[in-house]
Amino acid sequence: MVPGSRAAMAPPLEHGAHTSGTTRRSLLAGVAALGALGAAGCSRVATASSEDGGDLLERLRAAGVVRLGIAGEIPFGYINTDGELTGEAPELAKVIFKRLGVDRVQPVPTEFGSLIPGLNSQQFDVVAAGMYVNPDRCEQVIFADPDYQMLDSFIVRKGNPKGLHNYQDVVEKKAKFATGTGYAEIQYAVEAGYPRGDILIVPDQVAGLNAVEAGRADVFAGTAITTREVVKKSNKAEATEPFKPIVGGKPHVDGGAFAFRPTETKLRDAFNVELHKLKKSGELLRILKPFGFTEAEMTDLTAKELCGR
Predict the structure, then answer these.
(1) What's the sign of the alpha-carbon dihedral 248, 239, 1, 142?
(2) What is the DSSP string of 95-164?
């Protein structure tokens, strides 16, 4: 949902998903409306062939449209106030699928935690939600190589009165901790020693901001890009400096990518070819920059290395 997180920030190890001036309620209303329009013309995608890497790319070219699973998460994939599909993942999808001979993208909105089940039950063709690549997810879907990398950050009260800069601080100071549904930050907090049952789970970073402002949480954890965007218009909260969570005893950097059904290796491989061309030319940063991404978020991480962690 609105991250990775994620939003990024995600099942079963949580994101990380993609916060302008729009409210979460109006955002989801737009997503639902556009999704309903898309669903009217097409129910479910046809079952992919499990042989020779699948034939989905050929079928998408014939249909002229690819259905994108999104989670209404700024800046990863969402419907803007004009009712238009945008975000770093959809805008990148428009460019790459155009190069692959598919002229149109169609959003299919869902909860972040429903993206992988929705993909594998063929409600859409590809997940375009800035989803973090991790070993658990790699057992359920196949990923393109990451199109961005991301650190974590906290939403805290102005002045950061409890001095919370990482998950270890949260545990040591017994802070009230919140994060989003399906976010990778759940596991990072648990690994640091925070009791899973004590975590306040909220829908997204907008709800997280509200929880911190209202005092229901001392801290909300999300991706650096979503936390810094969502606090821009807050008089009560701020975002901490980005940091690397500790995973397996080592500093960890996440990478977000498009996800495909395991049978569709041809489509994933063709997508990767075009993605790497965009990286090499510098066009990838140009596409992602309007959504707050910088050179620091560009990455050479691969899905293989992230799946193998």
Answers:
(1) negative
(2) HHHHHTT--EEEEEE--GGGHHHHHHTTSSSEEEEEEEP-HHHHTT-EEPPPSEEE-EEEEEETT-TT--
What is the percentage of the chain residues whose pLDDT exceeds 90?
75
Place of tokens 């009791």: 195
pTM of the model: 0.75
How many CA atoms within 13 Å lie on the side-chain side of 172? 8
Count of alpha carbons within 13 angstroms of residue 28, beta-carbon side: 12
Please give the DSSP secondary-structure letter assigned to residue 77: B
For residues 211 and 227, give the distance between their C-alpha atoms in angstroms, rounded to a whole number: 13
Contacts of 111 (CB under 8 A, 6+ apart): 1, 71, 181, 182
* 3 state SS of 219: strand
Would residue 180 be called left, alpha or beta, if left means φ above 0 and alpha means ψ between -120 and 50 degrees? Answer: beta
